[in-house]
Amino acid sequence: MQHRNPSRGPWLATAAGLLLAAVPAVGAAQVSLTTVVELAQKNSTQVRIAQADVRKAASQASQAKDAFIPSVSFGSGLPAFPELGYTGSLPTIWDGTAQSMVFSLPQIRYIQAARQALKAAQAALDDAREQVALDASTAYLELDTVNGELQAARDQEKFAARLVEIEQQRTDAGVDPLSELYQAQLTAAELKLNRLRLETRASEAAKQLSVFTGLPLGSITPDHASIPEVPAVSADDSHGAPPGIQSALALARSRELVAKGDQEHLWWLPEVGFGLLYNRNTTLLNNIRNYFAAPLPANNFSTGFSIKVPLFDMGLHAKQRESAAEALRARVEAEQAQQQDDLQIATLSGTLRELDAEADVASLKEKIAGEQLKAVMTQLELGNGAINTPGAPPQLSPEAEQKARIAERQKYEDALDAGLNLEKARLDLLRALGHMQDWLNELHAR
Question: CA-CA distance, 231 to 254, in Å (whole number)?
Fold first, then answer.
């Protein structure tokens, strides 16, 4: 279970409050990924439900153990009206009892089962926190990347507008056919559509972050420097079970212990209990002493052990069959969760190899586009140096610069998108391998 520094809570709440107070005045502000993750975990209903489950499981574990701790109660049998005759019970000013279980092998199993259930609830809480952290981190990375793509898309629109202007002039002068102007206008329209799609993606990511953190919509601007590098991992790396699998296994073990305790009820094993009784008798409003040879003592005290041996109880047999079925189901569900996690790891490993290659290809294309833009700019500035040479390529026209700039920005956007997809897949694999907490520890250390 993740242990959080208690001193961070007040500081985090204070920082969030200051941020909320400042948002209406200054609009969006840079918020680190660490703050977003912590606020998302604090605000998540999923995490709060898991926390309630932990408290419930802790109470149930304490309740199972408390069967061996004496319970004490006090009462009174003081008559309300004068009694007539012998009623069979002694009127008391007050009485006290204490009782507890001394030995019960099934109860020991139930205690062990309750502890395993608490362990399962704690692992489920860790799993909920990791899932919220993954969702918040993914949305944060999405917004950070799309913001970069949007800037490039706006640059593209400027270059496209200049390209349309140039083609309009060349078409009016009869240098280029009308189709070239239409092609430039089509390019501008496509780039506008691309920018609108990016704005939609940014709006969706911002809305997700607002829901996750509870901060106003549009108040979060990602701080790229706060994002740690997502480590490259593979299925071959040693890993432990993720919290979700740990929770399922612990829950299965808990159900099995309950079934074992129910089965031990059928073994004719004795259950030993302890009892203590004290009462203070009274002769007020009664003539109880007339029915006894000697005066009744005022103070009465007794203790004793009770031994119970279950010989025949069909209800216990039915309960044992029910708990055995529940234990079998929990074990199968844990195995199913493990199989699904293994399949997810295999799928993500294959996807990661492809995304890694795609990111390399996109990065190389970006570099090539950058070099081509430099070459175009050089030729436009200095010429091709071979105008009078037979067979030499023609001098580049002004629209070539805008096309090269548009192509370079497009390759830049493609590289950002490929990198984002790669980081998302790596985060998913980290979680499937049970290494998500390692990355979160690095995140909190920044």
Answer: 35
